[in-house]
Structures are given as structure tokens and as C-alpha cells.
Specification:
658 residues, mainly alpha, 4-stranded mixed β-sheet, two-stranded antiparallel sheet, 6 strands, 5% strand
């Protein structure tokens, strides 16, 4: 209603007539309003003569498509458009009095329609066309989504809009570099069809005047091109802009200009230009602040370019000044590390310690968000996990269903051991889940029970709710790949109940019809590893190898090595009495070899989720475990590979030789 009074209060008769239209269309979805942008017949502008039919939109143009993804277009720079009027005054100090009056009235406009009404009262100069377009974008970008959509409809239907575009088209050759850059950017950001005559003319003119642009103009145009769809003209201009920016690089003395241009240049930027940009930033490290470090890492991620020296500098600078860094900056740094696959244990540890130390100022939403990123990085933030568990135990009433489920999955994923806090923590999560159990789908219950099984905790209520006779019927409608995952979850639950033997009622067992007799996938068997093991064991007396073994019809092992117990020398058969038998469990040692290079935490090599439960069950079955975690082991020479395996499987020989 407040905006409605603003529309009615305008003196223009056209605006009051359009207000009635606005009240009718405001409740319709955007798809139903897209038909408003059409080629209009000749109309009379309130402040001028007849306007020709709008020929700036291509005949097959779909403006709703052109605006798709541009509801929140990020400006090239936060203050570029905000200071455009002041910039124009500095560039053209000899403006007439009428121009100053126009500028003052322009600053009072609060919507694109206000600007269009004003343009009808003046014969616009080139600079005033630029000011008008920029002000229209400034006013519309401040609005809410719904109001922005309605204002765009009013703008495109305004009789003066086509006249303004015609004037811009006629004056494009007369524009200086700043007028051209700002006007072009405003047209695209306002949503004028990118296939229209006016936009394509600006693209071609930018190509012709490219040699005149300085670094500011280059940056504005590159930022605009980042929002545009690919077309022959746009592709050519992008390539020319990259070459121009490369030539200007040596003359740039502001580090912000360099790293802000990096996302605009794009991931398909030539590798040599990426290296030059990084070298330019490294030459200006004395200008780099903490905020700049975060922005530089984000820019590198947007270019998909990993530079170890620059990342190391940014990481070290952040670590040295981590106190007081805003949460948004910290999460941005972690996101960039994830995208660049950059792993810095000291940086991650310092961020985890800082968040844990200042946990009282963060909300649960912020803590969960940063824990999600740590999980994606496979980094276990020990300090934060400890403090977060204390918060969960102390404030169970603040937990929502989503936060409880996430917390349960997170601690099971890291297989995190809380020691004396373990039982209170698990009891708190169980009690928080109890009210939601009757409303949960069977798939949600399955994930919750699965997470509890990984943690070795078996609460009765979720198990009872899940293990019903109707379980299979409720889950069988899932997609084939989901059904396969669910079947493995059922098998794992059955193994946990049989091997861990929790104190539960006898009725709480996985029904037989939920357990399929499908063989586990053995396609990941590493043949090169088996060959190296055979070579290693050739000179090991009494040691045998079984390749690619399936345990409990579920766990696939690379092999099982059986060797004599080191503390007991092997006895000849004559020394064993006629009625005596040597127990295999006492006379030999069974070693399960597990190939798991991607199933451990970063740097700590602590087993993650599923691998942790494999190790737990193998211990119950009497196996020792040897984890082969080196991803590069396959590419080592045969001698180095065998020596590495020897140290893992026969550590007593290494100690004896030492």
C-alpha cells in the first residue's frame, strides 16, 4: 500500500493510469507477466511527440529468458553506480546550468519510471542519457524482488523507455569511453534483451573503441559481459577484452583491480594470462589486507586456478590475523579451499580453534554451516567438535529436527569419539529425536538408524519405529540406485545387531525378507596390489595370502594374510602330542588388508564412517587390520611399493633390522 501511494502521488497522468494496472498484476506470478514485454504501437510521450514502434527488441526475443538469473546481478563494483553522478561531474566540469538542474532532479528519483518521466521534460545530451540509464539501475537494484519485478514491467511499458533507447542508439558513436561503458552495463543490468539492436550495437561499438578504454572501463565492460549469454559478438568482445586487459596489466597499481577482474575473465581464460595475474598480485603483497586474501582466494576459485605460492601467502596472512575476522570471510575462505582442492592443515586448525573459542557469538545455523564445509574438506575440527557437543548437551531445547539429524550424521561420518561425553551426547540426540519419530518417513528413519549403528549406539525407540512389517512396502518405490544403497544399509544394520550384540529385545532384528542375497561389488580389487603382496610373501616362511576375500558376505578385503604369531616360534609336527591340536587362533595371526586411500580424515588419517565400522567388526571377528592409505602407492616403483608394504605387515622385522 505504501508503494501504491507513491505511484498515485506522481503528477503524470500515465503513472496514475498504470497504478490501476499494477494493482491487478501484482498478485500474478512472473510467468504470467512476461507477456507484457511486447512491441508496442505508436504512443505519445507525456513530454514529447510521437514515438516510433519499439524496434530495439529482436522479433523472437524472450525477455523473461534474458532476465533469468539476473534478479540479483552482482554489480561490477559496489560503488561504481552509486558514485556515477559525482564521477560525471568530475569528468565534465563545464556542464551548463540546465545540466546541473537535471542532475539535481535525477537524484530525487526513486524508481525507473520517475527517471523516464523526467527524461520527457528535457532534450537529453549524451551524458544525460548515461546518467538516466545508470540511475534507473541504481533505483531498481535497491528494491525487493516483488517490487523490482513490477517496476520492470512499468519501465518496459513506459512510452518514454523506447525513446530513451532510441536516443542511446543514435548517440552511441558520440559517447566517450565512460559514457559508453556505464550505459552499456546499465542496459544489460536493466534487462534489455541481449539480442536487441541497441545492446548489439553497444557491443560492436565497444569493440571499435576498445583501444581507448582505461582499466576502469575495461573492468566495467568485463563485469557486464560476465552476465551476458554467449553470442558471436559477445565471444569476440570477451577475447578482445582479455587481450586489452593483459596489455594494461603492467600499468595497474591497485591489487583490488586485478583480483576483481579475475572472476570476470573467467575459468576459460588462457593459462598464461592466469599466471600473469597471479604474479601481478604477488608483486603487490604489501597492499593485501585480510579481506583481500578472502577475495583473492574466491577469485582464484572462480578462475579454477591453483597457485600454491599465492594460496600459501593468503593462508598465512589469515592465520596471523585471525582474531576478529567476520564469519562470512572465514566461510568464504573454506569454500574457496574446497573448490580449489587446497588443503592447509594449520589454516583449518586455526579456524576451528577460533570458532570454538568464540562459540558464544555464533548461532547454531552458522556453526552447522561451517561444520558442513569442514566435512566436505574431510577435516575433523577437533576443538569445534568438542565444544559443539557440549553446547548440544547443555541446550537440547534449541535443537531443531534438521540440526539433530545433521549433528548425528556429522559425528557418525567422522566417527568422533567423545570419551566421557559420549553417552550424554548420544542420549541427548536420542531424546531430541523421539518426538519426531512418528512423523518421519521410513527413508529418514533408515538414515538415522544407520548413523547410530556407525556410532555403535542402538536406541530402542528409533529401531522399533523402523523395524516394522510395512518397512519394505514404504521404501520399495525409490529409484533403483537408492534401493541398492538401502539394501546395503539393511545388511549393515543386521551385521551390527549380530556382531555388536547390543542389549536389545530379541524381537528387534532385521527381518529376513529385507536382506537380499546379493554378492558385494568386487570390481574395486587392485590387481597390482595382489602382485606386490605375492612378491613380498615369497620369502616369508609359513605365511599365506588369500586375494580378494569377502567377509560376512558384505565386507570386501584386498586380501587376508595368515602368518605365525611373532611371539611363538613355529613348532614341528612331532612336538605336538597325538591327542593335541594347535588352535589356529592361537598359533597364527590373521591380517585383513584394506585399500582405503579416500576414507580417512585429512592429515590425521582417522577412519571415516563406513571404514570405521569395517575396522570395528573385523576386530570382533579376530582380524588385525592393515590400512593401505597412500593414493600414490600404485605409481611407485615395485621395490618402493614392496618396502612400504613390508613396514606395514611385518613391523617386527623392521624393528629387528634396526
Amino acid at each position: 500500500m505504501r508503494h501504491g501511494f507513491r505511484f498515485v502521488s506522481r503528477m503524470s497522468v500515465w503513472q496514475q493510469r498504470r497504478f490501476l494496472f499494477l494493482t491487478k498484476v501484482a498478485s500474478f506470478p512472473s510467468q504470467q507477466l512476461s507477456h507484457i514485454w511486447y512491441r508496442r504501437p505508436n504512443q505519445t510521450c507525456p513530454g514529447g511527440g510521437l514515438i516510433r514502434s519499439v524496434t530495439f527488441y529482436s522479433k523472437d526475443s524472450n525477455h523473461s529468458e534474458d532476465l533469468e538469473g539476473m534478479a540479483h546481478p552482482s554489480p561490477p563494483e559496489e560503488t561504481v553506480f552509486q558514485n556515477v553522478i559525482e564521477t560525471t561531474s568530475k569528468l565534465h566540469p563545464n556542464m551548463t546550468w540546465r545540466n546541473s538542474e537535471f542532475k539535481d532532479r535525477l537524484q530525487q528519483c526513486v524508481s525507473p519510471s520517475d527517471v523516464l518521466d523526467l527524461t520527457c521534460d528535457y532534450y537529453l545530451t549524451v551524458h544525460e542519457i548515461r546518467l538516466s540509464l545508470c540511475t534507473m539501475w541504481i533505483t531498481i537494484r535497491k528494491m525487493s524482488d516483488k517490487l523490482r519485478h513490477c517496476e520492470r514491467q512499468l519501465m518496459f511499458d513506459h512510452p518514454a523507455f523506447s525513446q530513451l533507447l532510441q536516443k542511446a542508439l543514435n548517440c552511441v558513436e558520440k559517447m566517450n569511453k565512460y559514457d559508453l561503458a556505464y550505459s552499456f552495463s546499465s542496459l544489460v543490468q536493466l534487462g534489455v534483451s541481449q539480442r536487441s539492436q541497441v545492446v548489439q550495437t553497444f557491443v560492436r561499438t565497444c569493440q571499435e573503441k576498445l583501444i581507448l578504454f582505461d582499466e576502469q572501463c575495461l573492468f566495467i565492460i568485463m563485469s557486464t559481459l560476465a552476465h551476458m549469454r554467449e553470442s558471436p559478438n559477445v565471444a569476440v568482445l570477451k577475447e578482445e577484452m582479455r587481450l586489452a586487459f593483459k596489455n594494461h596489466l603492467s600499468m595497474i597499481h591497485d591489487v583490488k583491480t586485478v583480483y576483481k577482474a579475475m572472476p570476470v575473465l573467467g575459468a576459460d581464460c588462457p593459462p598464461d594470462l592466469k599466471k600473469e595475474l597471479v604474479e601481478k598480485i604477488l608483486s603487490m603483497t604489501d597492499q593485501i589486507s585480510i579481506h583481500d586474501c578472502s577475495e583473492i582466494m574466491s577469485a582464484m576459485a572462480s578462475m579454477n586456478f591453483h597457485s600454491a605460492p599465492l594460496l600459501s601467502f593468503c593462508s598465512q596472512h589469515i592465520r596471523e590475523n585471525i582474531t576478529g575476522i567476520p564469519f562470512r570471510t572465514l566461510i568464504s575462505v573454506l569454500y574457496s579451499c574446497e573448490q580449489l582442492k587446497h588443503r592447509d592443515f594449520n589454516l583449518f586448525t586455526d579456524i576451528s580453534d577460533y570458532i570454538a573459542w568464540m562459540i558464544h557469538i555464533w548461532s547454531n545455523k552458522q556453526l552447522i554451516l561451517i561444520l558442513k564445509v569442514f566435512r566436505n574438506l574431510k577435516f575433523c575440527p577437533t576443538a569445534l567438535m568438542e565444544v559443539f557437543a557440549v553446547e548440544v548437551i547443555a541446550k537440547p531445547n534449541t535443537l531443531t529436527l534438521k540440526s539433530v539429524v545433521f549433528t548425528l550424521k556429522l559425528y557418525s561420518y567422522f566417527n568422533y569419539e567423545l570419551h566421557e561425553r559420549r553417552q550424554p551426547f548420544l542420549d541427548t540426540l536420542t531424546q531430541a529425536l523421539d518426538p519426531y519419530l512418528p512423523k518421519m518417513s521410513q527413508y529418514e528413519l533408515l538414515n538415522i538408524v544407520y548413523a547410530f549403528c556407525i556410532l555403535g549406539h542402538f536406541p530402542v525407540a528409533p529401531l522399533e519405529q523402523f523395524l516394522q512389517s510395512s518397512t519394505k512396502k514404504k521404501i520399495s518405490n525409490a529409484a533403483p540406485h537408492i534401493i541398492k544403497i538401502q539394501d546395503r544399509m539393511f545388511q549393515l544394520m543386521d551385521l551390527c545387531l549380530r556382531l555388536d550384540r547390543p542389549p536389545l529385545p530379541k524381537t528387534l532384528t532385521v527381518p529376513a525378507f529385507l536382506l537380499k542375497d546379493s554378492l558385494p561389488d568386487n570390481s574395486t580389487h587392485q590387481c597390482w596390489l595382489s602382485q606386490s603382496l605375492q612378491t613380498l610373501l615369497e620369502d616369508q616362511y609359513g605365511t599365506t595370502l588369500q586375494n580378494s576375500v569377502v567377509v560376512e558376505n558384505f565386507y570386501v578385503l584386498e586380501g587376508i594374510i595368515t602368518k605365525p604369531v611373532p611371539s611363538q616360534p613355529s613348532m614341528p609336527e612331532a612336538s605336538i602330542g597325538p591327542g593335541e591340536e594347535c588352535s589356529p587362533a592361537k598359533s597364527s595371526q590373521r591380517i585383513a588388508l584394506i585399500w582405503a586411500p579416500n576414507c580417512v580424515c585429512f592429515m590425521t588419517f582417522k577412519p571415516l564412517g563406513f571404514l570405521a565400522i569395517v575396522i570395528r567388526h573385523l576386530k570382533i571377528l579376530g582380524f588385525d587390520q592393515v590400512l593401505v592409505l597412500e593414493p600414490n602407492l600404485k605409481y611407485m616403483s615395485e621395490t618402493c611399493r614392496i618396502e612400504s608394504l613390508r613396514r606395514k605387515i611385518f613391523p617386527e622385522q623392521i624393528r629387528y633390522e634396526a
